[in-house]
Amino acid sequence: MVKIQKYREAESTLTDPTGRACSVTNRDIFSYEDRFHPALVFESDRELAQFFTTRCGAEFDVASLQAGPRRTDVSVHEPPPVRVPPPPRRPQPPR
Question: In principle, which of 9, 49, 71, 90 could form an S-S bond with 62, CB 3.0–4.6 Å?
Answer without folding.
Answer: 49
